[in-house]
Amino acid sequence: MKNTTPTLGHVHLQVSDLESAIGFYRDVIGLDVQQRTDEAAFLSFGGYHHHLGLNTWRSKGAGRAPKGHPGLFHSAFLYPDRTALGQAIIRATKHGYRLEGAADHGVSEAVYLSDPDGNGVELYRDRVEADWPRSSDGSLTMVNAPLDVEALVAEGQKGLDG
Fold it and tell me: Which of 6, 35, 71, 114 has the fewest CB neighbours in a 10 Å radius?
C-alpha cells in the first residue's frame, strides 16, 4: 500500500541580510548552500534541493519582527545524536550566538537560540522511542525539565577531539 502521509518539505524565510542568514544556517546549523542568487539562497542537508529557503525579496534591510505577534515561533533542527547536538552548540557559541534556553523534554533534549533576524531556532536530538516517557494509558508525558548543556558540550568536544 502506498504511503500517503505528507512530510515537511522545506521552510522559506524572509530575511533582512542574506549573507548573515546564510552564514548562520551554513556555519552554525550545518546546512549546505545548493543554489544562490543575489536575493535568495536554498540550503539543505545531504544534497537535497532545499530544506530551507532564504530570501530578501520584500525584506532586505528590514528590522526584526516584534516578539509576541503571530508568525514563526521557531524552526527545529534534529541532530542524530548527543555528540552531533553538542557540536552544533559549540559551533553556535564559536560564532557568537548565545543559547536562550535549554530543556529536557523526556522525548528529546533541546537548546534554543535566535538566528540573525530574531527567528527562533531549536537544535535537538530525540531519544529512542522506547525511552519516551508515557503515562499508564500509553500517552506521551513530555516534560520541560532542566538540561545539562555542559555535558552535551563535553560530549560534542569529545567527538571533535577524535
Answer: 6
